[in-house]
Amino acid sequence: MSEPKILVALDYNDKKEALALVEQLNPKLCGLKVGKEMFTLFGPDFVKELVAKGYNVFLDLKFHDIPNTVAKACQAAAKLGVWMINVHASGGRVMMEKAREALEHEENKPLLIAVTMLTSMNEQVFSELGYQRGLAEQVAHLAQMSRDSGLDGVVCSSWEAKQLKQQCGKDFKLITPGIRPEGSDKGDQSRIMTPSQALNAGSDYLVIGRPITQANNPYQALCDISDSIVSHL
Ligand SMILES: O=C(O)c1cc(=O)[nH]c(=O)n1[C@@H]1O[C@H](COP(=O)(O)O)[C@@H](O)[C@H]1O
């Protein structure tokens, strides 16, 4: 069975609300992403609760620290039984290599991916950061460094997916947030595509939050998105 391509971002401040949606879902339909808000509020036990339900759980804490700290955080995350964890590629090559090495002896080896440039970044915001390269070039540079460090993939926007597939190879996983069905509110996302466009561009997994969680009927919103990409499955 191919793994579900949709990862629902459970960005809730209410555990009951999150679990009410999860109860309507199933692990064949989607994976679940737990980010900084729910992890801060409800901690590792909430993550373990979702893992126990049989979901692919993506723990999105974007570890970015000195190599030793990130390596230990990755080991702690692996012990929760999660399917995927992320670090920030801007932490550098040594940090990413130490993170990968730290997982080698773990019983549960989650996919280890690196965040390149946040999908909320546009050229204007990016230019204030003072990088020499352009935004797309910086994403490509960080993706190559992540690949060379032995990571399993990157978080990037769907705008970079085609280029990164050519550059890093088909097995290097591309996880793309900034997914918006036609007509849905961009919010603070900048580099967006529809689910189908993103998969056509080469995305392996679609991270989708508010278009689902803030819909009037989140389950129906997920089903509609799932139906819209059925030709890609
Ligand atoms: O690592 C992430 O998941 C992430 C990286 C990135 O570049 N952009 C991004 O939006 N995300 C996360 O993906 C989710 C997107 O949520 P929505 O904008 O509501 O669909 C949020 O939980 C973000 O924290």
From TrEMBL:
Pfam families, per the entry: OMPdecase
PROSITE patterns the record matches: OMPDECASE
Reactions catalysed, as given in the entry: orotidine 5'-phosphate + H(+) = UMP + CO2
Active-site residues per Swiss-Prot or TrEMBL entry: K62
Keywords: Decarboxylase, Lyase, Pyrimidine biosynthesis
Residues reported to bind substrate: 11, 33, 60-69, 119, 180, 189, 209-210
Domain Orotidine 5'-phosphate decarboxylase per the UniProt entry, residue ranges: 5-225
SMART domains noted in UniProt: OMPdecase
Domain of life: Bacteria
Pathway: Pyrimidine metabolism; UMP biosynthesis via de novo pathway; UMP from orotate: step 2/2
EC number, UniProt record: 4.1.1.23
Keyword Lyase: yes
Oligomer and partners: Homodimer.
Function: Catalyzes the decarboxylation of orotidine 5'-monophosphate (OMP) to uridine 5'-monophosphate (UMP).
Family (UniProt): Belongs to the OMP decarboxylase family. Type 1 subfamily.
PANTHER family assigned to the protein according to its UniProt record, in alphabetical order: OROTIDINE 5'-PHOSPHATE DECARBOXYLASE
Protein name stated in the entry: Orotidine 5'-phosphate decarboxylase
Species name: Kangiella taiwanensis
